[in-house]
Design goal:
The complex is a heterodimer of chains A (306) and B (517). Chain A is mostly helical. Chain A has helices at residues 2-29, 34-39, 45-55, 61-73, 87-122, 127-141, 144-158, 170-199, 203-210, 215-244, 246-252, 258-267, 271-299. Chain A contains 13 helices and no strands. Classes of the chains: A mainly alpha (306), B alpha+beta (517). At the A-B interface, α2, α3, α5, α7 and α8 of A face α1, α4 and α10 of B.
């Protein structure tokens, strides 16, 4: 396991290099000029030239790329053109908020998906299965942009139970987490249902029933664990998507995360900041999937990593 | 997962929630200010907040006139000199007295190429700034330059204030408020400046909260979580909020100018008859009534009627599709099979309102046989295309036009990109002569007469089709009293704003001040 872990960690380096190269190339290829965005169109040419020089934008692109990679090796993502602050500091200030939102969204998804998927998978074709899957499809179908304000109107405006926006205590987390987690809950519930329905007639389930276990206990004690592997795999992919997909939720709930920061950086053609945000998202995605692989072996001892 | 969530939300592992203190006005803004240093902040939110923290030599009052702020009087000893005499007893919020040395330093640092202030580009005609004594400041211009008074609107920072950085979010100012806390993307909280006299019933401070989504901003106003929002709600949401219990909408004339721009490099659009036909094919009254929901006035030119140089007697283009068809026929573009004469590309951004507007233009122009092909881009790509002249027709807005010198910036042939804002490539030697003459004319009466000619010529030549002047629309709680709208959208009346429990508190009207000339 340790060898596997170290090998995957070492694999992060080429991924980071690939992401850094792609991001660098893409953001420099799209139209837009950070210097004009900062100084305005009627800036004096001498001021434009001075700012280009100060930011290193007057150097050839390969030279800029090499110095960007050199900074990355030293852990220096550069300085934001718009905010006049180090990119690492700006990202570090917002990363906990994004991680918190994604973790809460995932928690909501698991709390909703597991009971729904279990109920549906335990009795495929029953009314409970139909009801649970209808709920799951509804969750997948309603976009965040609509669900967020809807939850706000009901739980904040009408009932007055929860705050509308902002990051604060746990109460501030409930509505954004519900918004984030509902669609994922639907996807996970459907996967769990399929997986459970698939193991219901397996030999080990018949053996469990022969031991005298009831249907519920047999499924909970033996079926669920065997049905979890594809669900965990999907959770890993979805958790990464939760991080990158948090942008809309962050905007709706005025949540100060990296998603909003990245949008602002791209709009201002703030090259260092945009590159830093994309890199952090990509690496987080890779780390989440590494953790998912490790989780396989914990759930199913037959899976050997290495 | 639950453990991770618990760890992240445990006290000590996260930022303490920010709360607006009691008796602070809670204001929703749509973006975080980019810089709370007035030498660097050019975005609208930074400008609005900075004018609450920093005084300037002069400011625009509620009638649109330039009046003294730090300056109590102005002299013009020669055509190239402006001498401001400063008020005494003014202090920055850290207690330091404000003197001419601070003013000189502020301007020197904006002009210093190494400081890379975006404000320096507008001051090319400023040769130097002198401070002969503690309370006198002198602008020396390279030539007689009438727009020089506009420079007096820049906020003043203390001597030796470095460029903005991580540990210095905002220098102290001498305005009515001072920065208490800045949490980027969340809050900007301003306290009262203890060295700035406040009316007895005025609020203790202002808490600006960043709420990017307009629907959520409307919900915050309904719930009472926010008490004020200005110009960050689309017209349909404003219509929804009108008449809601506990809220009121203050709509006042604004100077934001919406226009359609034509590219003169396109041979079709270079023909005046085509531009006139487009002008007569667009029903601007209908657009103001529908898309803008009555929150704008149909414009006749760049300057709104409140501006001192406004000229009403210009050629207008009433909605007349029949006349538009005749003009297009005369220009050599007869109607072909399928009801189409020619096609133009309309470039715009991806905002919902912008797309709606594009569709309305396309439908109206189709009536006279012009096919408008709509292309939407994200803002930086759109902006880059416009700057490079890579467009046929587009529509944008100018915000905060104070001085008619803006005509020079956008219509003088010397200001064609990359040097300036004449993106349409419009060139008329008579216009160039008038604009250069206006900039060199210090007598306001003569200057106004020259700008009257400029406005007539611009309305005739149609480099821009004037669409409308957008009103300033503020939605606020009924507790808020003392708000006075400014044509340029300034929030300066927050200095005397009050929160009255249970109803409106009426404040006496502000006495008009003498304009600086």
């Amino acid at each position: 396991m340790m060898r596997f872990f170290l090998r995957r960690l070492a694999g992060l380096a080429p991924v980071a290099l690939g992401v850094a190269t792609l991001t660098f190339a893409l953001i420099h290829l799209v139209p837009g000029d950070p210097v004009i965005a900062m100084l305005g169109e009627n800036a004096a040419p001498v001021d434009i030239a001075a700012m280009r020089h100060q930011l290193g934008l007057d150097r050839p692109l390969p030279a800029q790329y090499v110095s960007y990679l050199g900074g990355l090796l030293r852990g220096d993502l550069g300085s934001s053109i718009s905010f006049h602050e180090p990119v690492t500091a700006l990202i570090a200030a917002r990363f906990p908020a994004t991680l918190e939102l994604a973790a809460a969204g995932l928690t909501v998804a698991v709390l909703i998906a597991f009971p729904l998927g279990f109920i549906a998978g335990a009795r495929p074709g029953s009314a409970a299965d139909f009801g649970a899957m209808a709920f799951a499809i509804l969750g997948i179908s309603v976009p965040h942009l609509y669900l967020g304000p809807l939850l706000m109107i009901v739980f904040s405006l009408r009932l007055g139970w929860l705050p509308l926006t902002g990051r604060g205590g746990l109460a501030h987390l409930v509505l954004p987490a519900l918004t984030m987690g509902t669609a994922m809950a639907g996807i996970l519930a459907r996967m769990l249902r399929q997986s459970l329905a698939g193991v219901r007639d397996a030999d080990f389930m018949r053996a469990a029933r022969a031991k005298g276990l009831g249907e519920f206990h047999a499924l909970a004690a033996h079926g669920l664990r065997n049905a979890l592997t594809p669900v965990v795999s999907l959770m890993g992919l979805q958790a990464g998507a939760l991080l990158t997909g948090s942008i809309v939720t962050e905007i709706i709930f005025s949540w100060p995360g990296i998603g909003r920061l990245m949008i602002e950086a791209i709009a201002a053609r703030d090259y260092p900041l945009a590159q830093g945000c994309v890199l952090v998202f990509a690496l987080t995605y890779v780390v989440v999937n590494l953790l998912t692989d490790i989780a396989y072996s914990l759930i199913d001892p037959r899976v050997r990593l290495g | 997962m639950l453990a991770l969530l618990a760890a992240l939300t445990m006290p000590g592992c996260r930022a303490v929630p920010v709360q607006a203190p009691a008796n602070y006005l809670r204001v929703d803004i749509d973006t975080s200010p980019l810089s709370l240093d007035p030498r660097y902040g050019t975005d609208a939110v930074s400008s609005r907040i900075n004018e609450l923290i920093f005084d300037s030599l002069a400011r625009i009052d509620a009638r649109g006139a330039i009046v003294g702020e730090l300056a109590e009087s102005l002299e013009r000893p020669s055509p190239t000199e402006l001498v401001f005499h400063l008020r005494r007893g003014v202090r920055f919020s850290d207690g330091r007295p404000l003197t001419a040395r601070d003013v000189k330093y502020t301007f020197d640092s904006m002009l210093d190429p190494a400081a890379l202030s975006p404000k320096g580009g507008d001051m090319a005609a400023l040769a130097r700034v002198e401070a002969p004594d503690d309370f006198t400041i002198k602008f020396i211009t390279t030539r007689p330059y009438a727009p020089a008074l506009q420079w007096a609107l820049h906020g003043v920072v203390p001597y030796a204030t470095p460029p903005p950085g991580r540990n210095q979010p905002a220098p102290p100012g001498s305005g009515p408020f001072r920065l208490r806390r800045l949490v980027r993307d969340e809050w900007v909280i301003l306290d009262r400046n203890p060295y700035h006299r406040a009316p007895p019933a005025a609020v203790g401070g202002i808490a600006f909260k960043v709420v990017p989504d307009p629907t959520v901003c409307a919900l915050e106003l309904i719930k009472g979580a926010a008490q004020f929002a200005q110009n960050n709600l689309p017209p349909d949401l404003v219509a929804y909020l009108r008449g809601r219990r506990g809220l009121r909408v203050v709509q006042a004339a604004g100077s934001t100018y919406q226009y359609m721009e034509f590219n003169f490099r396109d041979p079709i659009l270079a023909d005046l008859r085509v531009r006139q036909a487009i002008a007569m094919a667009i029903d601007r009254d209908a657009l103001v009534a529908s898309i803008m929901r009555g929150t704008a006035r149909v414009a006749t030119g760049m300057l709104a009627p409140e501006n001192w140089a406004y000229e009403a007697n210009v050629v207008r283009y009433p909605y007349d599709p029949q006349a538009a068809r005749r003009l297009l026929d005369a220009a050599g573009y007869p109607m072909r099979a399928g009801g189409r004469r020619f096609a133009l590309v309309y470039t715009t951004t991806q905002g919902e309102e912008r797309r709606l507007l594009a569709q309305a233009f396309a439908a109206m122009l189709a009536e006279v046989g012009i096919e408008l092909r709509i292309r939407t881009y994200e803002w930086p790509t759109f902006y880059s295309d416009i700057q490079r002249g890579n467009f046929d027709v587009t529509s944008m807005a100018w915000i905060g036009i104070n001085d008619p010198h803006h005509y020079y910036m956008v219509f003088d042939s010397a200001m064609t990109p990359p040097k300036g804002l004449n993106r349409s490539g419009y060139s008329n030697p008579r216009m160039d002569r008038l604009l250069e003459q206006a900039d060199a004319t210090l007598d306001p009466v003569r200057r106004k007469a020259i700008y009257a000619e400029v406005q007539k010529l611009a309305a005739h030549d149609l480099p821009y089709l004037s669409l409308w002047w957008q009103d300033n629309v503020a939605v606020m709680s009924r507790e808020v009293a003392g708000f006075r709208p400014f044509p340029n959208g300034s929030l300066r009346s927050f200095a005397s704003i009050s929160l009255a429990q249970g109803g409106l508190l009426r404040l006496p009207p502000e006495a008009p001040e003498a304009a600086l000339r």
